[in-house]
Design a protein that fits this description.
With about 425 residues, the chain is of the alpha/beta class. It has helices spanning about 5-20, 30-45, 80-85, 125-135, 145-155, 160-170, 190-195, 205-215, 230-245, 250-255, 270-285, 285-295, 300-320, 345-355, 380, 385-395, 415-430; strands spanning about 20-25, 50-55, 70-75, 90-95, 110, 175-180, 255-265, 325-330, 335-340, 360-365, 370-375, 400-405, 405-410. The chain starts with a helix and ends with a helix.
Length: about 425
């Protein structure tokens, strides 16, 4: 399944071999940070000098010297014009939908699951693609446990390329699959209160939580990892009922019930928790802390956990603040925020757990710009392709957009928000 990708990765490894210095540009979310860590670790192991920088996207400048090799991770496939202007050797390691044709000025290798018969939305992330690249450079099988963070962070399924990576990690002793619930580790009461995946809507509702615990007859001070098989079953059933009452997308149930990934070589063994910590570091503009944790530097673990705890509280506060401001349109829902700390996690949570019946478009107007996060689910994506909707609607108002069918984004001017939303609704209705 990964054979075609491995061929491209081999070509990329040849460019690495002849390069004297490498510039890595990667995204700032869990997938981008873990992809960057995998590339960095593989280069460190062969003694190649490099510089790594995090970008919010290719709207920001890519700096390089002509004789350097530029690696774009978790970005690039949707920006043919930008990539075509880079006057240096380029490797793209991405999983986003391809847009247009890249006309490189120098040597160019494009590693993307979409070019190899895999679905980059569900079957392989940028960190998974980076893992294939890393193993073309040398033996980096131990990085399988970092490769899976992107799949979890981007709400992918453990199928296709992701399944192959997990299998490789299990065979080599770096990943363990356990029966259980994909929840954070910690005391049950705290986990249920602060959980974002799944979002259980207990934050600020202490009485409701105590009533929930009382009904399932489990001590809230118990460590989740110490729960008995019977207690796990009881908890799972109660959570499923709560999610269904909330109107959550049914697919989220499969994501947290069943198999639990244990990462045996990482600083945090709970895969969903490690992903969340790394993602929080990125969203809090502390990408280097997330990177250090992925590189297994114990000195940064305490700071990373601190950032994570602060960040998830902030997101839960924002969800409570904005959830009732969501507006209903013909074929989508939308929310326009101002100066919110983050857009993507609010969009993801609201669309998956509270407003799962239509695509949700969240706009955040901040620092003179409007950032858009569009989210839906696999069921809605059978009809509506948000990557295409974002691209076309953003182009209509002089902006830029793209991404995946279920998770896409755009950057537009604040004065264009109303026209943009009208165009998004029109396009969603056309596809529905």
């Amino acid at each position: 399944m990964l054979d075609l990708l491995k061929l491209q990765a081999k070509k990329a490894a040849e460019l690495v071999e002849k390069a004297d210095f490498i510039r890595i540009y990667t995204h700032f979310d869990a997938d981008g940070i873990s992809a960057g860590a995998i590339i960095a670790k593989s280069l460190l192991r062969i003694g190649k000098p490099f510089h790594l920088r995090f970008l919010k996207g290719l709207n920001e400048k890519v700096e390089y010297e002509k004789d350097e090799l530029v690696i774009l991770a978790d970005m690039g496939s949707g920006y043919p014009d930008v990539v075509s202007q880079i006057d240096a050797d380029v490797i793209i390691i991405d999983h986003h939908t391809l847009v247009g044709k890249i006309e490189p000025l120098r040597n160019f290798v494009h590693i993307n699951p979409h070019l190899a018969g895999l679905d980059g939305t569900y079957e392989l992330s940028a960190s998974g693609t980076s893992y294939v690249f890393a193993n073309a450079i040398g033996n980096n099988v131990d990085l399988s446990s970092i490769a899976i963070l992107g799949a979890i962070g981007d709400k992918q399924k453990l199928v296709g390329g992701n399944a192959e990576i997990v299998k490789e990690g299990v065979i080599n002793g770096f990943i363990e699959l356990k029966e259980g619930l994909n929840l954070y580790s910690g005391k049950l009461r705290e986990v249920l209160t602060y959980s974002l995946e799944p979002f259980l809507d207990f934050y600020g509702k202490e009485d409701e939580l105590e009533d929930f615990l009382s009904k399932i007859k489990i001590d809230g001070d118990k460590e989740i990892d110490d729960l008995s098989f019977e207690e796990i079953n009881t908890l799972a059933n109660a959570i499923v009922l709560r999610l269904l009452k909330m109107g959550a997308y049914e697919g989220v149930i499969d994501e947290f019930i069943g198999k639990k990934l244990i990462l045996k070589s990482e600083l945090i063994s709970n895969a969903i928790m490690l992903t969340d910590v790394v993602n929080s570091c990125g969203r809090a503009a502390e990408m280097s802390v997330g990177l250090a944790i992925c590189l297994r530097d114990k000195n940064y673990l305490g700071k990373g956990l601190e950032i994570w705890k602060k960040y998830r509280t902030e997101i839960l506060e924002q969800i409570n603040k904005w959830r009732n401001e969501v507006k209903d349109s013909f074929c989508m829902r939308y929310l326009v925020m101002e100066n919110a700390p983050s857009t993507s996690p609010i969009a993801s949570t609201l669309s998956r757990y509270i407003y799962a019946d239509k695509p949700l478009i969240v706009v955040n107007i901040k620092n003179g710009k409007a950032k858009v996060s569009a989210r839906s689910n696999a069921k809605l994506a059978e009809k509506v392709d948000l990557a295409e909707v974002m691209r076309l609607a953003a182009e209509r108002v002089g902006g830029r957009g793209g991404g995946h069918k279920v998770a896409a984004g755009a950057n537009i001017e604040p004065q264009a928000v109303e026209e943009f939303l009208r165009e998004v609704d029109r396009l969603c209705c056309m596809q529905s």
